[in-house]
Design a protein that fits this description.
Layout lengths: L7 H4 L8 E5 L10 E4 L13 E5 L8 H13 L4 E5 L9 H9 L4 E4 L5 H36 L4 H11 L2 E6 L5 E3 L7 H13 L3 E8 L2 E9 L7 H30 L2 H8 L5 H11 L8 E8 L2 H6 L2 H13 L3 E7 L3 E8 L6 H14 L1 H4 L6 E5 L9 H18 L13 H11 L2 H19 L3 H10 L4 H8 L3 H15 L6 H17 L4 H8 L1
Parallel strand pairs: 2-3, 3-4, 4-5
Antiparallel strand pairs: 1-5, 6-7, 6-9, 8-9, 10-12, 10-13, 11-12
Helix pairs in contact: 2-3, 4-5, 4-7, 5-7, 7-11, 11-12, 16-20, 17-18, 18-19
Pfam families: HTH_30, PucR
Protein name: Purine catabolism regulator
InterPro entries: CdaR-like_regulators (IPR051448), PucR_C-HTH_dom (IPR025736), PucR_C-HTH_sf (IPR042070), PucR_dom (IPR012914)
Length: 536
Amino acid sequence: MKTPKLTVSDILKRKHFEHIQIVAGHQGLNRTVKWVHVMEVTKINKLLRGKELILSTGVGWRENKSLFISFVQQLIECDASGLCIEMGTYASSIPQEIIDLANEHRFPIILFLKEVPFVEITQDIHTYLINQHYQIISNLESYSQELNKKLLSIDHYDEILKFLHHYLGHQVIFKINGKEVELVPKYVKQSKEEQQLFDSVLHSQQKTATQSIRIFGNEYAELSIVSIDKEISEFDLLILDRTATALAQHLLRDLYVEEKKRAQENEWLKSWLEGEHSSEAIFDYLTDHETELKPKGGFVSICRFKSSKQYSNLDITYFKLLFRTIFEQQGFSTFPVDFHNSVVFIMVNKRDIKTWKNRMKMGIKYLMESDFANKKRIPNFLIGVGKFVENISQMDKSYQTALETIKIQNQLGEKANSYFYEDLHIYRIISLIHKYSDLYEVVMEYLEPVIQYDKKYNGKLMETLKVYLACNGSKKETAKRLFVVRQTLYHRIQKLEKLLGDDFMNPEKRLAIEFMIKAYEYLMSNDESQYVQNHK
């Protein structure tokens, strides 16, 4: 099925090469030839693409040895396949320096001892090369059609790997992230030493080609072919690429079908979020899905869309599959649960507990930067990550904190600087107070004089107060951050002392004021600003 490459040695067996002499580069006769080109100029740096067999009469250098040497050097640098020179009219001999240079680089130099028609040589070889390319395209199309037929009927990707091996004859290596390497034909490991020998053979051979298999913009698997006794051709690479594409389609189909099945388990997972299942029942459920899964705690992550319309317009199965693909590579097993306009993901940790947060951050980064998200096929949504629990039967606690995180994020809008409940610190306390008391009244008890002053005189006392506290009372640093002279700052501080009391920097009062500033910003975010207006 494969089309052999054309070498210099093959061309020398064709018509018009009956009367030749190979004067240099005998060891390079196996060089591949992709084209034949007639060339009489001596400056050729940008004229060749590589693998050309050059025909010349020598008129370009006309017995000028230095020009001739430069010409051959440029051919070698451009990765030409060889040089054929017609002797007689313009060239009568080949200097020893040229022969030595060509031998050093295994660059064939062939002499035509009789006049030959260059046009007939190029026509003959170009016709052969074009037919060869046509045969490659034909074989590639035939392979693709067979591959597409298999995709409609096969149950496991192993049949695609076997088909690739049967077609090319190369060793096939396939690896899905997080799983063991698969070999076709299978390699039976007799001992550790034998495995190391096999690995060293693979690494020492340069005859290896690898194609990444990407799903949703992420590398999901890797397909390689290894040749021990022959070079890997361009045709092999094309076949490898087509096979990788077919594998991606098959894997995506399997993932999609599996995700559909998981959607049916929604009710059981909702009960898990409500804390209704025992540790034993949860463990049984997990082992049914992943036999070797060993949970190391977990947490809940919520993706909430801005509206029900956005949620209904989204291919939610596709979104869950994207989420799962990204975060499984970060060491989490994901179990999605559908709600009104949210998808809640129960995240079971499989790696070191100490690294869970950094891995989650990396996964969120990949999610936000994915092609699927950037092409606006995913509408704007909030992500809230609840507290980490070591006992997976306590996911209800993580779920409640994830809901609280979403609430705070929705409240703060762009001011929210973290997806994680444990990072929200002061806002968690503020939210709790707001839930059970009139937070606005409490804030006004401390800050109303400053707020009213700024409103009446268009002043900047609130800004000054916030920066002054952040600088731990350093007047020099505060003036620098506010871009004001010290005299202006002193005047503002005097005003603050008059409005808040000259003890406002005392530790306990200062702590309360800092807390109220955060609370005021919380109230002024998004919809709460209307709440504040209603209180005035």
